[in-house]
Design goal:
This is Aspartate-semialdehyde dehydrogenase. By secondary structure, this protein is α/β, with parallel strands linked by helices. The protein has two domains: about 5-130 and about 325-335, 3-Layer(aba) Sandwich (Rossmann fold); about 130-320, Dihydrodipicolinate Reductase, domain 2. The chain has helices at about 15-25, 75-90, 130-145, 165-180, 215-225, 260-270, 285-290, 320-335; strands spanning about 5-10, 30-40, 45-50, 50-55, 55-60, 70, 90-95, 125, 150-155, 230-240, 245-255, 275, 295-305, 310-315. Helix 1 (about 15-25) packs across helix 8 and helix 3 (about 130-145) packs across helix 8 (about 320-335). The radius of gyration is 20 Å and the shape is globular. The mean pLDDT is about 95. The structure holds adenosine-2'-5'-diphosphate. Adenosine-2'-5'-diphosphate binds next to helix 1 and helix 4. Adenosine-2'-5'-diphosphate binds near residues 15, 38, 74 and 163.
Length: about 350
Amino acid sequence: MSKTYSVAVVGATGAVGQEMMRTLERRNFPVGELRLLASERSAGKKAMFKGKEYTIQELKEDSFEGIQIALFSAGGSISKKFVPYAVKSGAVAIDNTSAFRMDPNVPLVVPEVNPSDIFKNKGIIANPNCSTIQMVQVLKPLHDFAKIKRVVVSTYQAVSGAGMKAMEELLKETEAVLQKKEYKRSIFPHQIAFNALPRIPQSGGIEEGGYTNEEVKMIKETKKIMGDNSIAVTATCVRVPVLRGHSESVNIETEKRVTVEKARELLAATENVIVQDDIEKELYPLAITSADKFETFVGRIREDDTVKYGLNLWVVSDNLLKGAAWNAVQIAEKLIAG
Ligand code: A2P
């Protein structure tokens, strides 16, 4: 009999938690016992996994007995409190929140970029910020070839990054606007329907210089994952009325020239990256076509002649999958493969 692993999903009723379960199922991850954990509000609710019904349990300090892998996606404060209990029980915690990402003792991993860091874990492996994951996946082969000096990124982020209730808010608000009805919003600080919000409030507060926490995450996490503090990164993160799939305009400056053809060649050879780059045929990455896919898509590749050596790229991926659930399950797959 092949070996199986006891797995806990913390935040199993949430947007990412549900995708974690679906991804374990899609990848046929060798799950033995599965423990689904959420708040006391959800205790007793049912969820299906591989055709079998499971009961959601309330997350408690002793929830991790016998668990080998604990996937966390129930918010930073829950991770801060409960990840240590999971580790104490002997589990490896793969944490999708920002709670431990910048801790020097915690590896921050994108398996296509720094897979060996997985094995430096002392019980916790952090899953990076969604916008950062898809960007570094594309930066890595270009950095290896031409050394990236500077990155300027602007994001167009889907509402699902703010959870299930945010998706509901976009749909209900869109309907209300179309019907010219009042809508009382509870998630976003401004109307998200038919709008673009240059702030991701769910990601935390405002930091020095007026940067949002999401922007600072992109700046710091990129350097940590790429293992290169010399890469200068600046970011503007924007929420757009898209349900699923983050899009990014990424401008990079390199030490040597990368032609469009070379960039396409390098990216096409990169694991889990798909080049969609034929403007004449209207072929470029789109949020709606990246939804539900594990890969990251790149297109609109152009040389930037305002600097000595530069490139512009358009990068899209499903924020709930590569940006969260799939990256976490991919880490778990590498971990058990050893
Ligand atoms: P619940 O559904 O019981 O509130 P999303 O990101 O889609 O908003 O989901 C957040 C996830 O985090 C949900 O599964 C939610 O469970 C879970 N969660 C929120 N607060 C707690 C808590 N105090 N303890 C355990 N899980 C929590």
